[in-house]
């Protein structure tokens, strides 16, 4: 796949359309550009997370995720083309099992808070969920492989787990929601 970018400011989108990888043009408001944009935004937020001090293994994992998100975005931009491979999903499943095994069981919902790195991981998680919703909406309109939807679903789970891991890097913990139910459970146990 040679150098495809010869010019950035083409003005071809001034009419409200965008070009896909198969040389078709669609409205920028249609489902495919929404999904592509969310995946691009997610990748950018992961880039921002990578600016934080992170454990080396988490950093390497996130760099790999960025490459896979680029593949996913490319697949979305070229209807009928496969760039996201099955081993990418397996890699997420393996990472999810590895990091989740290190964490204590949740007692209640947690807030998207804590350290700056953990909070940014939560932002990434919410953007991944939005991207997943747009991919699901696109799949309801067009025949597509399940892999992009599955990848985003697993990635959002992994980002939740990584946020919990990152809150513990320097001895911190989850930031629990102060719910009435949790307070009652604590009172009942005392």
The largest sheet is: 2 strands, antiparallel
Can you name the CATH architecture?
Up-down Bundle
Q: Determine the CATH topology.
A: Hypothetical Protein Ta1238, Chain: A
CATH superfamily, by name, is Cobalamin adenosyltransferase-like
The count of helical stretches stands at: 6
Total of domains: 1
Order of helices and strands: EEHHHHHH
How would you describe this structure to a colleague?
The protein has 190 residues and is mainly alpha-helical. The chain contains six helices and two strands, in the order E-E-H-H-H-H-H-H. It has a single domain (24-188), classed as Cobalamin adenosyltransferase-like (Hypothetical Protein Ta1238, Chain: A, Up-down Bundle). The chain has helices spanning 31-49, 56-77, 86-100, 116-141, 147-167, 180-189; strands spanning 17-19, 25-27. The chain has a two-stranded antiparallel sheet with strand order 1-2. A hairpin with a 5-residue loop joins strand 1 (17-19) and strand 2 (25-27). Helix 1 runs antiparallel to helix 4 (116-141). The chain starts with 16 loop residues before the first strand and ends with a helix. The model has no long low-confidence stretch (mean pLDDT 87).
Record keyword descriptors for this entry.
EC 2.5.1.-; 6 helices; 2 strands; single chain; two-stranded antiparallel ribbon; 190 residues; Cobalamin adenosyltransferase; 59% helix; mainly alpha; 3% strand
Short description:
Keywords: ATP-binding, Cobalamin biosynthesis, Nucleotide-binding, Transferase. About 60% of the residues lie in helices and about 5% in strands.
